[in-house]
Amino acid sequence: MYRTHTCGELRMDNIGQSVTLAGWVQKVRNLGAMTFVDLRDRYGITQLVVTEHAEASLRDTAAHLGREFVIQATGTVIERASKNPKMETGDIEVELTALRILNQAATPPFTIEDNSDGGDEIRMKYRYLDLRRNPLKNALMLRHRMAIEIRNYLSGHGFLEIETPYLIRSTPEGARDFVVPSRMNPGEFYALPQSPQTFKQLLMVAGYDRYFQIVRCFRDEDLRADRQPEFTQIDCEMSFVEQEDVLATFEGLAKQMFDRILGIKFTEAFPRMPYNEAMEKYGSDKPDIRFGMTFNDLTASVKGHGFVVFDSAEYVGAIVAPGCASYTRKQLDALTDFVKRPQIGAKGLIYVRCEEGGGFKSSVDKFYTPDDLQGWATACAAKPGDLILILAGGKKQTLTALGELRLEMGNRLGLRDPKHFAPLWVVDFPLLEWDEESGRFFAMHHPFTSPKPEDIPLMDSDPGRVRANAYDFVVNGVEVGGGSIRIHDSQLQQKMFETLGFTAAQAEAQFGFLMNAFRYGAPPHGGIAFGFDRWCALFGGADSIRDYIAFPKNNSGRDVMIDAPSPIDQAQLDELSIVLGTNAQEKN
Questions:
Q1: Which residues lie below 8 Å from residue 586, measured CB to CB, with a gap of 6+?
Q2: What does the buried/exposed string (b/e) look like for 262-282 if buried means 16 or more CB atoms within 10 Å of the residue's CB?
Q3: Residue 565 preceded by cis peptide, ω within 30
Q4: CB distance 135 to 547 below 8 Å
Q5: Exposure of 170 in the CB half-sphere (CA atoms within 13 A)
Q6: How far apart (Å, rounded) are the C-alpha atoms in residues 521 and 206?
Q7: Which of 284, 275, 274 has the alpha carbon at shortest distance from 396?
Q8: What is the overall mean pLDDT for the chain?
Q9: How many angstroms separate the CA atoms of 337 and 543, rounded?
């Protein structure tokens, strides 16, 4: 055996025992007469000591150790003279009697410490080294624990884990597909699934009334901190259920996860918030409700005073930043620059300082009297010492921009504590959203989402007003999961396809297999999918999901460690009947 114990295992109870450890050299301290070595494995670090009385060959081997050498060390557990309370093994050390170098190591390109000196790109290139660091190790251990709890809960509630195909057909809706050429069917392609949506519905038709899968999904879309081209979903579906059944089941899952993983107990039901309320109060369909600062509609009260920005605006909205009346001109200019960023798109920012001693100071004093500003303060419930921040413009764009400003102020004021969790359900989403460029409706979720039964008559007269039987699980401004009750009636599904602009032939070509299955008795069904990577990052207190994925891609969708994607040989292209375009040929 290479080891009798791990490097995180030994304690005072082991004193006097002869042990063998194996692992990587974290640090070597040569003090002349004595050499100390910190030995690391997945479980922890143990200090080894080579004394001046050790055999010359042992002292010589210790003198040649370098960082990240792989070694085997045998010795006796003794009590440390200088204990280290920061280490779990800090009360003991191992006095060596034998030392063997199993593998030498080149000097790592960055320090393998909790706080590394390596930048993102270099650590991504040497990911196998980065994974030796405690933050990433702890992240993957958290992911493992969460996966076990999820499987235990769902299995305990009658769900079967069933795998679905990775090679499917491409569909035009949603994000771009990754496509896979078929050698046996020249000129034809598979797609990698964006989700197992149609397959889990087919499992409901097949009678497997409670399905789940912790499944890999793929989307060829632009990336950011919480997106990867390949990601993991907790995919679930249930038959003979209504929306309340689904929410109750998966609220139970969420509560158990908070309890078992973080030790946080939620005894009350999670709040429910309609989509329209979320947009009107928070400017987002994934509101962060850890703090207030909700929106105040000032549109009616600010018009007619000759200030063209307000007079021409469809919507004028305000938030109150508590205790921020002392903000300097420099700070206010920084906020103005923030809202004018292209990704936010506001044209400017209006402010009103509610002075501590009474009175007001604003950027629009020329147009509004102190009484006018008092009216705004009253409408916003602003107190002396507060700062009112106002945006104006088209309603949809202004609500979104005001939502970003609210989150920015929440960050600045320390109101978004990652250790405080505020979950809720957002419900009653619109079924459809209109796209001006293409002049047609698109499904806000997917084409199989059921409308509210009472709104079905509006499918013909006013499709934009139809609400969906859809719901999102939101925590701290992060959409952790989302789902819906599905359409199980063939005629209603056909109506949905027509509303989305599909001809009968297009619907048949894309989804005929599902429509045909519905002819054989589809039960009422619905489900939900959770973003597993996001949920792990949320529980770990991180903004990015990268550290919770063993081998992630960078912001360009590349794996810089293995240098993928990469060109393939012409012989492979010929075998797949693929001819590259001019741009791809020049690149290769």
A1: none
A2: eeeeeeeebeebebeebbebb
A3: yes
A4: yes
A5: 15
A6: 9
A7: 284
A8: 94
A9: 23
Give the mean model confidence (pLDDT) for residues 200-223.
94
pLDDT at 508 (0 to 100): 87
Q: What is d(CA 584, CA 567) in angstroms, rounded to the nearest whole number?
A: 9
Residue 586: its pLDDT value, please? 64
What's the rounded Cα separation, in Å, for the pair 427 and 469?
8
Q: What pLDDT score was predicted for residue 545?
A: 94
Q: Say whether pLDDT at 172 is over 90.
A: no
Residue 434 has pLDDT above 90, yes or no: no
Distance of alpha carbon 467 from alpha carbon 461, whole angstroms: 14
| Rounded CA separation 133/113 (Å) | 6
What does the chain come to in residues? 588
Q: Is the backbone of residue 218 left (phi > 0), alpha (psi -120 to 50) or beta?
A: beta
C-alpha count within 13 angstroms, C-beta hemisphere, residue 199 = 18
Consecutive H or E run containing 330? helix 329-339
Peptide bond into 287 cis (omega under 30): no
pTM: 0.92
Q: What is the DSSP letter of 549?
A: S
Two tokens at 298?
């000032």
Q: Could you tell me if 489 and 453 are in contact, meaning their C-beta atoms sit under 8 angstroms apart? A: no
Three-state secondary structure readout of 57-74: HHHHHHHCCCCCCEEEEE
Q: Is 232 left (phi over 0), alpha (psi -120 to 50) or beta?
A: beta
Report whether 343 contacts 405 (CB < 8 A): no
Residue with tokens 């693929």: 578
Nearest CA to 138 out of 541, 555, 553, 554 is that of 541
CA separation for the pair 205, 239 (Å, rounded): 9
pLDDT band at residue 142 under the 50/70/90 scheme = very high
Q: How many CB atoms lie within 10 A of CB 497?
A: 20
Count other C-beta atoms under 10 Å from residue 369's C-beta: 11
Q: How close are the terminal C-alpha atoms of the chain, in Å?
A: 49
Closest CA to 26 of 105, 98, 128: 105
At residue 470 the predicted structure's pLDDT band, cuts being 50, 70 and 90, is very high
Nearest CA to 273 out of 14, 474, 83, 2 is that of 474
Integer Cα distance of 318 and 507 in angstroms: 45
Which is nearest to 455 in space by CA: 445, 468, 446? 468
Residue 463 DSSP one-character state: G
- Tell me how far apart the alpha carbons of residues 502 and 456 are, in angstroms, rounded to a whole number: 18
The answer to whether the CB of 382 falls within 8 A of the CB of 320 is yes
Q: Rounded mean pLDDT of 458-487?
A: 95
Closest C-alpha to 531, from 288, 123, 194: 194
Tokens encoding 287: 């509101």
Q: What sign results for the dihedral spanned by CA atoms 392, 393, 395, 396?
A: negative
Return d(Cα 196, Cα 217) in angstroms, integer. 8
Residue linked to tokens 């990754």: 178
